[in-house]
Amino acid sequence: MLTIYRRHRISCKHRGKGREYRHCGCPIWVDGYLGGNEMRESLKMRDWQRAQETIREWEANDRREVKAERKTLEDAWADYRADMLARKLHSETIRKYKTLQTQMVGFATRHGFRFLDEFSLSEVSKFRAE
Predict the structure, then answer these.
(1) What is the pTM of this model?
(2) C-alpha torsion 42→44→48→51, nearest 10
């Protein structure tokens, strides 16, 4: 169960009333256990109502963050081709992107990349330099 409270600033005139006092503008923090893990962190907000809604949502979902799956380079290009067709790009433009795809996939194969997120800024710079 999680508990929200105000962590009073040094300059807050209600600091002596303790963390239960909530009618001021000090930052809101959360304390407690969720999913077997202890939590004690700032909610980075000052609105009590919004803080309560956030905590309710966390408790209902057990604060599970859904991690996005890594997109392969082939899937990314397939999505982009579909987007090009949906935008009805000129055939010459599509041909140029197909050339870029061939070059990029070749670069990725030579360097052992399978996923789109493996193309960091430095890797893209190396690709452009080739």
Answers:
(1) 0.49
(2) -80
Strand order in the sheet with 37-42: 2-6, 28-34, 37-42
With vertex at residue 115, the alpha carbon angle to CA 109 and CA 120, rounded to the nearest 5 degrees, is 90
* Cα–Cα distance list, 127 to 67, 81, 100, 118 (Å): 28, 20, 11, 12
What is d(CA 3, CA 45) in angstroms, rounded to the nearest whole number? 15
Nearest in space to 30 (alpha carbons), one of 19, 16, 14, 15: 19
Instruction: Report the candidate in 130, 125, 127, 80 with the shortest Cα–Cα distance to residue 108.
Output: 127
Separation CA 31–CA 18 (nearest Å) = 15
Written as six digits, the tokens of 93 are: 């433009």
Alpha-carbon distance of 54 to 41, in angstroms, equals: 13
Helix (H) or strand (E) holding 115: none
Structure confidence by residue, pLDDT tens digits, 4-59: 999 999 999 999 999 889 899 999 999 998 877 888 999 999 999 999 999 998 88
